[in-house]
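Example 3.2
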Amino acid sequence: MTGGATRALEQVGAFSILIARSARETVRRRPEGSVVLDQLYQLGVLSIGIATVTAMFTGMVLALQTSYSLAAYGAKFFVGDIVSLSLVRELGPVLTSLMVGGRVGAGITAEIGTMTVTEQIDAIRAMASSPVRKLVVPKVIAIVIMLPVLVVLSDFVGIMGGLLMAVTTLNQPAAFYMQHVIKAIHPEDILSGLGKTVVFALLIGFIACYKGLTATGGADGVGRATTETVVASSLSILISDFFLTKLFLAF
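Structure, written as tokens:
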């Protein structure tokens, strides 16, 4: 087995151990509420801006593109259906996760990575405390809670962006657009989108924490770990989205 393959297996093993330890720490002792609340604010509330702006312009672009495409078939009135289903089932969860994952993942890796290279993580262990319980668990819990909330908000904002274009550009009545939106969206569409989001949140949280805990080489190492987090989390979201879509469509 080559050295690269061996290192890859070692990383997979270490990543799996981190997940197992986080699950054990969560079950053994409830995380501190104040710490989790702070992470909910830092990772979730402060990400509202980037999530809503992304969703708004995505909905507006979707409405414009679909209206011109459907105009050739005389089906411009289906704009509300396409915008709402595209956002709720696919674009809302994926784009929001990518944008929030880039911001949140980079921040977590930079924070934990700095603590690692400055030996603060070793100090936590020396005090007979667990860095997984103190650092990893609250952040992962906060992401799992807040990312679905952000996706729901993004879906709503994106649909409103489509409504704006439908009214101002396509001259559709707002009630007509919303009627198509309500008829197009079913509970299973919303649940499939939110189900994906939970998986994306776990991937973002654990990848960011793992890269931070394994950072080496001072400031340069932290920078490399941060870049690797953004790349790895983005790829994992896109790859897992394909398999999750296949899974949800099978039921």
